[in-house]
Amino acid sequence: MADCERGLGRPERALDLIKSPDAKKLDPMGRVELRIVESGARRDLGQYDAAVVALQIPELRDRRLRPWSARLFYAYADALADAERTDEASEWFARAAAADRDGETDAAERYAELEGLDILDTEEDEEEEAAEETEIPADEVEASVEEAETSIEEAETSSEEAEASAAREPEAPVGPEAEAPAEPEAPAVPEIEVSGVPGIEFTEPDPEPAPEPPAEAPETSVVFLEPVTEETRERPEDG
Fold first, then answer.
1. d(CA 237, CA 239)
2. Is-contact 150 143, C-beta < 8 A?
3. How many CB atoms are located within 10 Å of the residue 43 CB?
4. How many beta carbons lie within 10 A of that of residue 85, not counting itself?
5. What is the DSSP string of 158-198?
6. Does pTM top 0.70 for this prediction?
């Protein structure tokens, strides 16, 4: 609300809101923002030294970076510049640039302006160089397109020729009529002549002797004897 009053050109009304009891209920972030608005309202009224003093709060000397550090440092440097305290303003613009990691302010440009320095945008230069390196001449693009079209046409022609050749070839018989594939012939074993080897004499092996027939068993006479009975015992000739 105080910032809106200042934007409407009513800095006195903005200062009244800053001093209201509701201002004391703000959180740390809100209190810092209210101090920045108060400093701007003081500058609108031409109270440049008061604008500097309005921002000399404990948060300004905090050595840790806070969410409000970049904006607070920048507002303090801006108030110092309006108060014609250029050296101090340059120092605080440098601190604001270091704290502004997201690039929300132009603290670096303000610091360079006070110090008389020129800032080189290295990011844009790198982007331009990358664009030049990746840029391909139009004639090379056309040549690449023509080569691609020629390759496609050759591939289509080869495919058509292969299909026509396959259509002309007779189909192999299927079923019992189909002949079994011929078995490959075994390689012939070369004959080796052993008669001409120097230093070695080959002779025919001796034939094995025929087996002798088994000897005939000697002839023997066979005598048949009659069995002894009671009749034979009574014969006198037999004694």
1. 5
2. no
3. 21
4. 17
5. HHHHHHHHHHHSPPPP-STTSPPPPPPPPPPPPP---TT-T
6. no
- For 11-41, b where at least 16 C-beta lie within 10 A, e where not — what string? bebbbebbeeeeeeeeeeeebbbbbbbbbbb
Low-confidence ranges of the chain (pLDDT < 50): 186, 189-203, 239
Question: CA 119 to CA 107: how far, in whole Å?
Answer: 12
Closest of 29, 70, 75, 28 to residue 56, by C-alpha: 75
**pLDDT, tens digit, for every residue of 144-191?**
666 766 776 776 676 667 666 656 655 555 555 555 555 555 455 444
Helices (H), the chain: 2-7, 11-18, 28-44, 48-54, 69-82, 86-99, 107-115, 122-134, 138-168, 230-234
